[in-house]
UniProtKB/TrEMBL annotation, chain A:
<dbReference type="InterPro" id="IPR050490">
    <property type="entry name" value="Bact_solute-bd_prot1"/>
</dbReference>
<dbReference type="Pfam" id="PF01547">
    <property type="entry name" value="SBP_bac_1"/>
</dbReference>
<dbReference type="InterPro" id="IPR006059">
    <property type="entry name" value="SBP"/>
</dbReference>
<comment type="similarity">
    <text>Belongs to the bacterial solute-binding protein 1 family.</text>
</comment>
<protein>
    <submittedName>
        <fullName>Alpha-glucoside ABC transporter substrate-binding protein</fullName>
    </submittedName>
</protein>
<feature type="signal peptide">
    <location>
        <begin position="1"/>
        <end position="25"/>
    </location>
</feature>
<keyword id="KW-0732">Signal</keyword>
UniProtKB/TrEMBL annotation, chain B:
<feature type="region of interest" description="Disordered">
    <location>
        <begin position="1"/>
        <end position="21"/>
    </location>
</feature>
<feature type="compositionally biased region" description="Low complexity">
    <location>
        <begin position="1"/>
        <end position="17"/>
    </location>
</feature>
<keyword id="KW-1133">Transmembrane helix</keyword>
<dbReference type="InterPro" id="IPR035906">
    <property type="entry name" value="MetI-like_sf"/>
</dbReference>
<feature type="transmembrane region" description="Helical">
    <location>
        <begin position="98"/>
        <end position="122"/>
    </location>
</feature>
<protein>
    <submittedName>
        <fullName>Sugar ABC transporter permease</fullName>
    </submittedName>
</protein>
<feature type="transmembrane region" description="Helical">
    <location>
        <begin position="134"/>
        <end position="162"/>
    </location>
</feature>
TrEMBL record, chain C:
<dbReference type="InterPro" id="IPR035906">
    <property type="entry name" value="MetI-like_sf"/>
</dbReference>
<dbReference type="GO" id="GO:0005886">
    <property type="term" value="C:plasma membrane"/>
</dbReference>
<feature type="transmembrane region" description="Helical">
    <location>
        <begin position="162"/>
        <end position="181"/>
    </location>
</feature>
<keyword id="KW-1003">Cell membrane</keyword>
<dbReference type="GO" id="GO:0055085">
    <property type="term" value="P:transmembrane transport"/>
</dbReference>
<feature type="transmembrane region" description="Helical">
    <location>
        <begin position="218"/>
        <end position="240"/>
    </location>
</feature>
<feature type="transmembrane region" description="Helical">
    <location>
        <begin position="270"/>
        <end position="289"/>
    </location>
</feature>
Length: 447, 320, 350
């Protein structure tokens, strides 16, 4: 969902602040003498040299403490090359980016989380093709499937930056152990577990899709994840590119399957109220009842780790953790729904290309990973640099060559659908609209 | 002006009802009026009051219980204010910076439109020329233009300049860092003018025509009449326009996002607060305290300008 | 925060203030000097005529062009700024509304066709109508009522500040406050929203207020009324203060009731201010956007024109359709413009 980057990256836990502070201290050590420091530390950046004193502006949806971490992650690069990186994050990123580009005030580089939006700018001739360096390093470190998302009409526009895994169900390992629940491996197991919990009189699932002007997106993730499980990845691709209609029976089947959980009054909405409360519950708060044992299962992406209150242990043996959202038929493979942002450029000055190329390298991914609270799909990145257990698990999944990866579908669709009618349709669907008319409504809006 | 000053003394003189019945009726009216006005005042204040109480409660209390439970188990903290005011992130700096930015943005963004609109309102009311009604109606109608549709062309005006058929009529402005304040002032001034002209025209055009004619006969120029007669008479109207314009600019987010950008060199308080509030979803504790931080200045401005209202607008008093 | 950070900002501010003084002062000075110059020249010409050296200057006629010349100077800043800031965008919007989503081809009136064939648009129009009718009416009534009642009351300043308070809060801030008021928690939980708590105290079950149409639109309208009543109150209160005291005193001596006083004296006296308030609130309501966006984002049948316009133009990359909605908004103002013209005419005649 179009906003995931803004939510994920922007969502900041207090624990990160600690990390950030210690990292700042380190950064200051190395940065103090940076100007004339041409020794070992800077030798790594030699190939980007020759841009001393130049300025590059970056615009993205990542804000606040997460933005601090970003700025730290490229500080050694900036110090050594002398390139001044002027970063700006905004909660209104998508709309503002369009205004700025139309108004002739485009940033040099933007981190765009929606391949659909990326394609719009590419087709309008606003984006510059990625430099050869970037392309080589991206091709070496990312699966070809993933790079297709930033390739428009054969031109490659930019490498992925951060990523996240969406196919997760959050649960409490502690509670599962106490009650003797086991982690389900198949869809049927999942339903059996839900029934078992429901039989105790508790509601097993909690969900929330309220997200300000992006309300509805968490429900689209449900639909996409199940679409990917119900059907083959090929059908998924046909669906997101509109080769099959949105109200195709296959899509209806997937949505109905989501409905067996989301619209089941016995299953939801633990800790909040009836089914309809899903649409007014903020997605940030939706999983929190797990901590009070009021809710047992919450499907949300890896970035939900940041939502747990300070002091919550997020680990396989901790207060909360996540398991893989099970496949319907594991024998057909285990597909993974993921998302992430792409580094694209609106300018092709040498210093802009230098920054773009650097951000595509495994070295950068490592530099950012060490600061914590980040997931990258870069296969050249060292997994030991990722500290949080959930980040580590996500990176493992993303780096696993055997997994079938697919990008969040609503980000691939035209914005009018993926960030518009589909979100609204999901809200209506939760509020009681039937599957058939929900889907045909979206279909008619897709031109 | 002298005609309006005797208003106030009349108020202190108690009305003298002619009989007992009259006295009772008036009492009832005032009592009913008092009750209703207190009721309205309470209704209008309770949400803000709830917000204020919430801003002083600890985070988990805000999220789990209503603010009214404060009365049964009072527990106050200044942490929220501490977090909003002094919590700083390396990329965005401290709130105080944004406070200064807000002031730098607001002061000229109020002065320019108020002054320009006052001049225009005078011209449209008291200088007789052909087509003035149409100009006025045109300006009036521009009020409906939604700000959002004007952002891109205006931004383009700054970043690309104006060129016609390949000839550059005006170069791009190339504003950097602090200079971006200039384009924010420009944008706010443009967007404020239709309402400002409308409001002031209403008051200026109702000034007694005898006054103007007398001045003209005495040989006063338009500039002189404007300065010495019109401006003093419409001070209350100017004061109210100033307040409204101040509030709009102070509370604006959209114009600031586009024209000032998000950095701590130029972004106003609203941009920073929106960030603080939005980064973690329903961060009530930051939202509530942040809202109060941003209310303080507008309230001071209102209270300090209030005496101008009490003097009364001239409207209707002369023409009836 | 240290001074090094602030000083460049203050420098820019000083430049701005100097520019202000130069522009405004300069214009007024110019207007003082130029007429004097012309008056002198005319004097000289008259002297010359009297001496029989030159032909007589045309008399009577020049007065009008000269008035026009002054008007140009008085109007210059406003006209130039409006041309750049608003007139050009209006023209651009008109053109864009005839083009497709990514502005690459002309599509004629297709976007307008889309607008009126879309089911949702009827709902949007109905909601917008509800807003435009209710907000000015209720906000002005409350503001007027309050202004009359607290007039010359003991704690007038405080009382007025209380109602004005919401004006000082941004639309987004106000929406957040009210989302708090309408917040919902399950029946078995503590309520955090005041409205539901009151319902619970009265023995009812908590409701999801923002889900039920059309009640939810009314609840959003409450927010706008809450804000705008302060605006109405400030302007109307000032107008009431300006009613000459002798009129009120005379009426009192005649023994009129407070009710009669309100209808026969107060209301007619403040009519111009009342019109200003209603027109201003109506226009602001037509453009309403933030409140709906923050509270429901147009879900649950609460959408309004300006929000849909913003979404189409900036979120969905459908600039054409967004522009068509904007043009529709422009058309809505026509009745008010007509009203205003008639008003103006009557005023000029009267």
């Amino acid at each position: 969902m179009a906003v995931f980057a803004r939510r994920r990256q922007a969502i900041v836990i207090a624990t990160v602040v600690g990390l950030a502070l210690s990292a700042t201290a380190c950064g200051d050590d190395s940065g103090s003498g940076s100007g004339n420091e041409s020794s070992a530390e800077c030798s790594a950046f030699e190939k980007y040299s020759g841009n001393d004193g130049k300025k590059v502006t970056i615009y993205a949806s990542i804000r606040d403490t997460e933005a601090d971490l970003l700025e730290q992650s490229w500080k050694p690069f900036a110090d050594c090359t002398g390139i001044e990186i002027d970063y700006e994050g905004s909660g209104e990123f998508e709309a503002q980016l369009q205004v700025r580009v139309d108004g002739g005030n485009a940033p040099d580089i933007a981190f765009i989380p929606q391949p659909g939006l990326l394609a719009t700018f590419a087709n309008a001739g606003k984006l510059k093709a990625a430099p050869a360096d970037t392309k080589t390093s991206a091709e070496a470190n990312y699966p070809a499937d993933w790079l297709k998302y930033s390739t428009v009409n054969g031109t490659f526009y930019g490498a992925p930056l951060g990523s996240n895994v969406k196919s997760f169900v959050w649960y409490s390992p502690k509670t599962f152990q106490e009650k003797g629940y086991t982690i389900p491996k198949t869809w049927d197991d999942l339903i059996a577990l839900s029934d078992k919990i429901a039989a105790t009189g508790e509601k097993p699932w909690c969900a929330g899709i309220e997200s300000g002007d992006a309300t509805g997106w968490p429900a689209t993730d449900w639909l996409e994840d199940i679409m990917l499980r119900d059907q083959s990845p090929e059908v998924y691709d046909q669906w997101v590119t509109h080769q099959i209609p949105f109200n195709d029976p296959k899509v209806a089947a997937a949505l109905d399957r989501a409905g067996t959980i989301l619209k089941n009054d016995k299953y939801v909405n633990a800790g909040f109220g009836p089914v309809k409360s899903i649409s007014t519950t903020a997605f940030q708060e939706a999983g929190l009842p797990i901590l009070e044992n009021k809710c047992f299962l919450h499907r949300q992406a890896s970035f939900y780790a940041n939502q747990w209150p300070q002091g919550t242990k997020v680990a396989e043996d901790g207060d909360v953790f996540a398991f893989y959202f099970p496949a319907v038929d594991p024998s057909k493979g285990e597909p993974v729904l993921a998302a992430g942002e792409f580094t694209v450029a609106f300018a092709d000055r040498p210093e802009v290309q230098a920054v773009q190329s650097y951000l595509a390298t495994p070295e950068y991914a490592n530099s950012r990973a060490k600061l914590g609270n980040w997931v990258s799909g870069n296969r050249g990145a060292d997994i030991n640099n990722f500290t949080n257990p959930i980040d580590k698990l996500s990176v493992q999944i993303l780096q696993d060559q055997s997994k079938v990866l697919r990008f969040d579908g609503s980000d691939l669709m035209p914005s009018a659908v993926g960030a518009g009618t589909l979100w609204k349709a999901m809200v209506d669907w939760i509020n009681g609209k039937d599957t058939a008319s929900t889907l045909s409504g979206v279909e008619s809006s897709w031109k | 002006m002298a005609t309006t000053t005797p208003v106030l003394p009349a108020t202190t003189a108690a009305p003298r009802p002619k009989n007992v019945a009259g006295r009772v009726r008036q009492r009832l009216n005032t009592r009913a009026a008092t009750v209703v006005s207190i009721l309205i005042a309470v209704l209008w204040t309770v949400p803000t009051f709830g917000l204020f109480i919430s801003s002083l409660r600890p985070e988990d209390a805000i999220k789990t219980t209503g603010w009214w439970t404060f009365f049964s188990e009072p527990k106050l903290t200044l942490d929220n204010y501490n977090e909003v005011l002094f919590g700083q992130s390396a990329s965005s700096g401290q709130l105080a910076n944004y406070f200064v930015n807000s002031l730098v943005i607001t002061i000229p963004s109020v002065l320019f439109p108020v002054a320009f609109a006052a001049m225009a309102a005078y011209a449209l009311s008291w200088i007789k020329f052909r087509g003035r009604e149409w100009i006025y109606v045109g300006i009036f109608a521009l009020q409906i233009v939604p700000l959002q549709m004007a952002l891109v062309p205006l931004l383009s005006f700054f970043s690309r300049g104006v060129s016609l058929g390949g000839i550059t009529l005006m170069p791009a402005w190339q504003l950097d860092d602090e200079q971006k304040f200039i384009q924010v002032w420009f944008a706010h001034t443009c967007f404020a003018l239709p309402f400002a002209v409308f409001l002031l025209h209403n008051f200026v055009s109702q000034l007694p025509s005898e006054l103007m004619e007398a001045a003209r006969v005495d040989g006063a120029s338009h500039a002189k009449i404007f300065r010495t007669i019109v401006l003093p008479l419409i001070t209350p109207a100017l004061a109210s326009l100033t307040i409204f314009q101040f509030l709009w600019v102070w509370n604006d987010l959209l114009v600031a996002l586009i024209f000032a950008g998000g950095g701590d060199e130029t972004a106003p308080l609203t941009v920073r607060l929106a960030e603080l509030a939005g980064t973690r979803g329903n961060e009530w504790q930051r939202l509530t305290s942040g809202a109060f931080v941003s209310i303080v200045i507008p309230l001071i401005v209102f209270l300090s300008l209030q005496r101008y209202f009490v003097r009364g607008l001239l409207t209707g008093s002369v023409k009836g | 925060m240290d001074f090094a950070d602030i000083s460049p900002k203050l420098t820019v501010l000083v430049y701005g203030l100097v520019a202000f003084a130069v522009v405004v002062g300069g214009l007024l000075l110019l207007l003082d000097v130029v007429p004097t110059y012309f008056a002198r020249r005319r004097e000289r010409q008259l002297i010359a005529v009297a001496a029989g050296d030159a032909p007589a200057p045309p008399s009577g006629r020049p007065r009008k062009p000269r008035e026009f010349g002054y008007a140009i100077f008085f109007l210059l800043p406003v006209v130039v700024l409006l041309l750049i800031g608003l007139v050009v965008p209006v023209i651009r919007t008109l053109l864009l509304s005839l083009r497709n989503g990514d502005n690459s081809a002309w599509v004629g009136l297709d976007n307008y066709g889309w607008m009126f064939s879309n089911d949702d648009i009827l709902n949007v129009l109905w909601n917008s109508l509800l807003w435009v009718v209710l907000v000015p009416l209720v906000a002005t009534s409350v503001g007027l009522l309050y202004a009359v009642m607290v007039d010359r009351a003991r704690f007038e300043a405080v009382a007025k500040s209380l109602i004005f308070l919401p004006m000082a809060i941004s639309f987004v801030g106000a929406s957040i406050i009210w989302r708090f008021v309408y917040a919902y928690r399950g029946e078995d939980l503590d309520q955090i929203g005041l409205l539901n708590q009151i319902v619970v105290w009265l023995g009812g079950t908590p409701q999801q207020w923002l889900l039920e149409s059309p009640l939810n639109t009314l609840l959003l309208i409450v927010v706008m009324v809450w804000i705008q009543a302060g605006f109405a109150m400030v302007i109307l209160s000032a107008a009431i203060k300006a009613i000459p005291g002798d009129i009120i005193e005379a009426a009192r001596l005649d023994g009129v009731t407070a009710w009669q006083m309100f209808w026969r004296i107060t209301l007619p006296s403040i009519r111009p201010a009342l019109i200003v308030v209603i027109v201003a609130i109506t226009v602001a309501t037509m453009k309403i956007f933030d409140i709906v966006r923050t509270m429901t984002n147009g879900n649950y049948d609460t959408n309004v024109i300006a929000l849909e316009m913003y979404n189409q133009a900036f979120r969905y990359q459908e600039t054409g359709q967004g522009s068509a909605l904007a043009v529709f908004l422009f058309l809505l103002v026509i009745p008010i413009v007509v009203f205003q013209i008639r008003n103006l005419r009557r005023q000029r005649e009267g």
